[in-house]
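Bit of a strange request maybe. I'm writing a small parser for structure token strings and I need a real example to test against, not something I typed by hand. Could someone generate the tokens for this chain?
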Amino acid sequence: MDTEQVNEILRLLKIIADSSTANKIAAISMIVSGIAVLSSIYFSHQTRVQYIESLSPMLSFELSEIKGILFLTVLNAGQSYAEKINLSFKSINNNGEETEFDIDKIFESDFTLYPNEKITGSIARSGANIATETAPAIQLEVAYIKGNTQKKTEYSRWIYFTGTIDSNEFVEMSLDKIDKTLKEISNSNNRMANYFSGNWLLTMDEMNLQPQRNLYQDIKDAVNNIERPDENLLGRDENCRMK
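Reply from user aminoacidic:
Good idea to test on real output. This should exercise your parser:
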């Protein structure tokens, strides 16, 4: 604050002191209102800035091995896209005799990742063997433009090895998941079929039985308030034996 501003404030205070009580109250009210408006504008601006920042893209990295090759996975875990992503591979440590990069073409040019998108590419050979145990770490320089603010972000970081991934294990896990899902769908369909047909059959049964009742009849009985006794359904009995 310079001398002129100080003198102006003192002049205003002198005017307020020389004025009547009503004028003093009005002036003070005006000052308080002005401060409140300025505070509201400031905090509104800060809230908007924080909200925009919360939508920033966030890149996460995973270093893994598949059949003797090191792969780098890049995931955008943020809320907006990251464009012109550029990765500069600087060094690799704790990788035995393999100290040179062999970068996949996917990392040779800039790329864009939208939220929850990821890419994976090979970056080097693994130095692990019978005599050498490794725990690779790579140094990266990362640069990209935030989709929410169009500002450029640059930083350097180390990515550490997360473990070996067996491709066969991946296939087995996927098949197990598919098998489990198909069984759940089959059981659900069986329960629905038993209800709609009025029978009681297990998923392993391959019999074609005539339906005892149907949904239309049940709705009609419910509308007419008709109570029916338990019916002797076809299929299996209470001991799961075929009737």
